[in-house]
Amino acid sequence: MAIEYRLLGRTGVQVSNLCLGAMMFGMRTEPDDSYAIVDRAIERGINFIDTANVYSRGVSETITGDALVRNGKRDRIVLATKFHGAMADDDPNMRGASRRHIIKACEASLERLKTDYIDLYQIHRPRSDTAIDETLRALDDLITAGKVRYIGTSTFAAWQLVESLWAAERLGLNRFICEQQPYNLLDRRVERELMPMAETYGFATIPWSPLGGGLLTGKYQRGQEPPSGTRFSSPNAMQRRRFNDRIFDVIEGLEPLAAKHDVPLSQYTLAWVMAQRGVTSPIIGPRTMAQLDDNLDAADVALDDEDFSAVDEVIPPGQMVAPFYEADFGPHRFRV
Ligand SMILES: NC(=O)c1ccc[n+]([C@@H]2O[C@H](COP(=O)([O-])OP(=O)(O)OC[C@H]3O[C@@H](n4cnc5c(N)ncnc54)[C@H](OP(=O)(O)O)[C@@H]3O)[C@@H](O)[C@H]2O)c1
Predict the structure, then answer these.
(1) In the structure, which protein residues have their CB atom closer than 6 angstroms to any atom of ligand 1?
(2) SS3 letters for 227-246?
(3) How many angstroms separate the alpha carbon of residue 139 from the centre of ligand 1?
(4) 121 is catalytic
(5) What is the rounded CA–CA span in Å between residue 88 and residue 96?
(6) How far is it, in rounded angstroms, from Cα 314 to Cα 19?
(7) Which residues of the chain have pLDDT under 70?
């Protein structure tokens, strides 16, 4: 299974079965290295890139846009970005899901990305203090204005997506076509409801943190400090909850399975996410060129039913040992 192309849900758009995530660009990867990573990914068949306005407060989008200007490949790429995260500390309206913010945020992203359209514009988190009809109407207007092609979500609950479908249908608005969900072998909770819902209603799914932020690469060892320079070497509170002892039961259970295929744990665990029913394109987040090459090689790792059963013994379907989301799953205050 080399890099192949899959339909982005019910749209007619074909995307590579790995998506290049740009979260490290400008945060832990220098611009020149980021440009080289984008070029190599495209050379190796990637046509799908994901960023967000909030990644390094615009710097990731700027670097991504510059990379596509430099290599002249903008029109070959399905370019995804997001809004919702806080873009200023001193202005409560520079965040969220209001019409006011969405239109401003979109204009700013287009400028940083140096393009006149975004292929997939995603709301970064559900937002219970804003009616979904307000958000959908603003996004629908951006589609009509030609600034956005498709709209998507990230880290929504299944019921919130179904609610958004009711609203879109009732109001005659474009619907969300893709959900970006946290999914990896340390957190399989999305299998309980989100994945069956996505398949039922034709959502593409593009999992984030498919390697658990690097925990599933084999470089962390039980009882040892994280190697310096790695993401978990200076953990924040959220990462500390993920870097717990239970993850090593899973890591140590998976290592022999990867060894049977003679591939690194990183490729085995990424190949597992790629192979799951309903998954369109996991988003990889390489910090270095070597990591990119390793991640792309996962496309050549073929897992079979024996692998899937053995993995289920190590971490059963629907289970979680490290939490990758704590989103706003409260009821909407306003219903359409
Ligand atoms: N929607 C959301 O809320 C959300 C949240 C998170 C991410 N995302 C998206 O998903 C993308 C991927 O997320 P992620 O970065 O968390 O994905 P990930 O693939 O789970 O983790 C990537 C990290 O793992 C380490 N790594 C990768 N390959 C490695 C290898 N071969 N050997 C050793 N270490 C390796 C690197 O961290 P080190 O620094 O330790 O080397 C790398 O930055 C992001 O770029 C972003 O586009 C979305």
Answers:
(1) 21-24, 28, 50, 124, 154-155, 180, 208-214, 217, 219, 230-231, 266, 283-287, 291, 294-295
(2) CCCCHHHCCCHHHHHHCCCH
(3) 28
(4) no
(5) 11
(6) 27
(7) 1, 327-328, 330-336
Give the separation between CA 277 and CA 299, rounded to whole angstroms: 16
What are 182's strand-pairing partners?
208
Q: Does domain 5-314 have CATH number 1.10.10.10?
A: no
**264 Cα nearest atom in ligand 1:** 31
What's the predicted TM-score (pTM) here? 0.97
Contact 106, 142 (CB under 8 A): yes
Note the pLDDT of residue 333.
Answer: 58
Ranges of each domain in the chain: 5-314
- To test the ligand 1 pocket, which listed residue (79, 284, 293, 297) has its Cβ within 8 A of the most ligand atoms? 284
Q: Ligand 1 centroid to 210 CA: how many Å?
A: 7
Write the single-letter amino acid at 197. Answer: M
Instruction: State how far the Cα of 107 lies from the Cα of 117, in Å rounded to an integer.
Output: 10
SS3 1: coil
CA torsion angle for 7, 13, 16, 19 (degrees, to 10)? -110
Element (H, E) at 205: strand 204-205
Quick one: tokens of 295? 């991640």
Catalytic residue among 55, 201, 220, 268: 55
> What is the chain's alpha carbon radius of gyration, rounded to the nearest angstrom?
19
Output DSSP code: residue 217.
G
Burial class (CB in 10 A: 0-12, 13-18, 19+), 317: exposed
In the predicted model, what is the mean pLDDT of the chain? 96
